[in-house]
Specification:
This protein is of the alpha/beta class and about 425 residues long. The chain is built from eight helices and 28 strands. The strands form eight sheets. Strands 3-2-1-7-19 form a five-stranded parallel beta sheet. Strands 9-16-10-11-12 form a five-stranded parallel beta sheet, covered by helices on one side. It is globular.
Length: about 425
């Protein structure tokens, strides 16, 4: 038996430990483009210099030795021969497998904007190469424009602002962080960003990148006609799965490699996990990418267990959860940030500088935002993820729910929610 894992981030690393729990003997080979193990959650800190690449490593120094993994780094995969069970690499290697995990993650999505693909000094922020490229450019730059004000875009803005660049955020939604927050919670962050001299354009679209004769970035043009001077552009408009090497592989793909609850793909003995795959998300019940770090770890563990002969399935695959702390203001959100229609009721509380919002339908929580005081927010995430009824609670308790409200004792004496 030989296991091959493509990718060395959260899902791939998690799969290794799961395999070794069931199979201490057989061979594990990991192939990755990366030459270092690092957390992509810490890329903004690497840009600012608050953390070194070595410090962003999230595994022990002896991980590969301890788990007896042959790591082939700095190597890309060009093709998978599913009939012969062979992985082909960009340096001519052909590596056979009995069980294969694809955990190649995702890259920044570049929208079709005029000159976006041609200009120099234009970067995404998804991997360590992006971060190091930004650091290299930022030394000589004074003005940066960030396209997209989701969490990646805002964190990039903070990092470049910290390096002394004049930063402008451009977002096509009505407020920043549109997938994570509502207008009120986002507005509090917009004020803080403005106080730190970060400019924000919302309800705006970048239509063209202006370049000089050497393809250097000079300006960014918006749909409204506004022209923003720029030396550096960061693109933070979403992700696309790293599946280019699967062009001629008969594997089911739709916004990612489609997997079932065991992380199995449409091809026997081939699994996928993390940002490269599309799975049934718990909150929406739709097959979609779930690109958050905790789910990559969980999916990797499930894939590794099943690759080694176990029988493990996903139970909760809840991607609608976010947490952030910007300028000392903490926020946690779950599920919807706005009520989808009039069948939902919205409850809001402002208290001692904190903002809290709940969205409920038929006694079930479908959305929660806690900003400022986030104590006790975790139970709301669990109630939303598992669609647990709160009908038994009086309305005055809505903002003071605790785990104790949902303990029930079973006939065998054990507690359950």
């Amino acid at each position: 038996m030989q296991y091959v894992i493509i990718g060395s981030s959260a899902a791939g690393i998690s799969a290794v430990s799961a395999i070794r729990e069931l199979d201490p003997k057989n061979s594990i080979i990991m192939i990755s483009k990366d030459k270092q193990i690092y957390s992509r959650c810490q890329l903004p800190e690497i840009i600012t210099g608050e953390r070194t690449l070595k410090e962003s490593c999230f595994i022990p120094a002896n991980f590969f030795e301890k788990y007896r993994v042959k790591w082939i780094d700095d190597t890309g995969v060009t093709h998978i021969n599913t009939d012969a069970h062979v992985v082909e690499t960009n340096n001519g290697q052909k590596i056979t497998f009995d069980r294969l995990l694809i955990a190649t993650g995702a890259s920044s999505f570049f929208p079709p904007i005029d000159n976006l693909q041609k200009g120099r000094q234009i970067c995404g922020l998804r991997n360590i190469d992006d971060a190091l490229q930004i650091v290299d450019y930022a030394h000589d730059m004074k003005k940066a424009v960030i396209i997209g004000a989701g969490l990646v875009g805002v964190e990039a803005a903070l990092a470049l602002n910290d390096l002394g660049l004049k930063v402008t955020l451009v977002e096509n939604a009505s407020h920043i962080l549109p997938l994570q927050l509502d207008q009120t919670a986002a507005g509090n962050y917009e004020r803080l960003l403005n106080e730190h001299q970060i400019n924000i354009y919302t309800n705006e679209i970048v239509t063209k990148i202006h370049l000089d004769e050497k393809q250097n970035v000079t300006h960014v043009e918006l749909k409204s006609g506004v022209i923003l001077p720029a030396d550096l552009i960061i693109v933070a408009t979403g992700i696309t799965p790293n599946i280019q090497f699967l062009d001629h592989v008969p594997i089911k793909i739709n916004r990612g490699i489609i997997v079932n609850e065991k992380q199995e793909t449409s091809i026997p003995n081939i699994y996928a996990a993390g940002d490269v795959c599309a799975s049934t998300e718990s909150f929406t019940a739709k097959i979609t990418p779930t690109p958050i770090w905790p789910l990559a770890i969980e999916q990797g563990r499930i894939a590794g267990t099943n690759m080694a002969g176990g029988n493990k399935q996903r139970t909760i695959n809840f991607a609608y959860k976010n947490s952030m702390n910007l300028f000392g203001l903490s926020t946690i959100s779950y599920g919807f940030t706005e009520a989808p229609n009039e069948n939902y009721t919205t409850h809001i509380q402002f208290e001692r500088g904190s903002y809290k919002k709940l969205i409920i339908k038929d006694g079930i929580l479908f959305g929660a935002i806690f900003q400022g005081d986030i104590s006790g927010a975790g139970i709301y995430g669990k109630l939303i993820a598992e669609k647990i009824s709160i009908n038994s609670l009086p309305p005055e308790r809505l903002f003071s729910i605790s785990y104790a409200n949902f303990f029930n004792q079973q006939e065998n004496g054990l507690y359950r929610y």
